[in-house]
Amino acid sequence: MSDISAPLLEINKLRKFFSIGAGSTVRAVDGVSFQLHEGEIFGLVGESGSGKSTIARTIMGLYPPTSGQILYHGQPAHLAKSWRQRNLQMIFQDSAAALNPYMRVCDIVAEPLRVFRLVKNGPLLGRRVQELLAQVGLEAAFLDKRPGELSGGQRQRVAIARSIAVHPKLLVADEPVASLDLSIQAQIINLFGQLQREYGFAFLLIAHDLPVVRHLCDRVGVLLRGRMVELAQTQALFQSPQHPYTKALLSAAPIADPLRERQRVILEYNPEQLPENGRLIEQERGHWVYSG
């Protein structure tokens, strides 16, 4: 790649619009810009329909952008296609739909190793698959099972094992624990943190669970109606939110302390107040806020 000092991923004024017939257009992502650096954990939060998943799918090449630019190590997406295929991996919310129901776990995890010719077929491949399963907390007994025989948490662990098999530079996770029980959610989130420290991949986490984002992420971007309304270091954003929507979003998050929960005041923000042609302005170092 051209510039080793360039961010791992750079999004410049990304737009993704969908035509829904009768001349109507949904502006799912409307001019979003941010950077993701090697080894960084970046969180995207916002209400349903804010554009989080659309951004993820556009980054992965599943959607073509309407306009704007996606750069990988300084290279435009169309020039970095082979790099993206090898170094970007995605974990979806619905693990049942993401895994081939007819394949055994051993074949699901081995598939990327075969495709990219990272390990030769035979005993070495079998050992590597078992190592990957062990890293995500699954025993060898799961090798011959199929996705339909697994719980939701176990399926997600298989999806994670498959994604880390190729040592990706960037892992994109779209609401990876939203469909799991609370106890399993905590296990998977801790697993993500452990694997990120071990493999060193950059991690784009799309979530609506604010405590999870606060626990795991280095920086956070807040989306509303396809626009980035605030972007900051995690501690700064949670301790001193600047945009009224961010304040309203954080005020709605439940608090574990019963006394503080009873005293919590939920703020309101009318999305119609969002300026149509605003932009991010750096109010403090590294703390960007959308303003008209």
| Rg (C-alpha, Å) | 20 Å
Walk across the major sheet and give the strand order: 6-7-8-3-9-10-12-11
In DSSP terms (H or I, runs of 4 or more residues), the helix count works out at 11
Strand content: 25-35%
Give average pLDDT, whole number.
Answer: 92
Distance N to C terminus: 37 Å
C-alpha geometry: globular
Derived structural class: alpha/beta
Q: How many strands?
A: 12
Largest beta sheet, briefly? Answer: 8 strands, mixed
How would you describe the oligomerization state of the chains in this entry? single chain
Helical residue percent? 25-40%
What is the string of helix and strand elements? Answer: EEEHEEHEHHHHEHEHEEHHHEE
**Poorly predicted spans:** none
Overall description:
The chain contains 11 helices and 12 strands. It is α/β, with parallel strands linked by helices and 292 residues long. The strands form 2 sheets. The protein has an 8-stranded mixed sheet with strand order 6-7-8-3-9-10-12-11, with helices on both faces. A 4-stranded antiparallel sheet has the order 2-1-4-5, with helices on one face. Helix 4 (105-115) packs across helix 5 (123-135), helix 4 (105-115) packs parallel to helix 6 (152-164) and helix 5 (123-135) crosses helix 6. It starts with 8 loop residues before the first strand and ends with a strand. The relative contact order is 0.15.
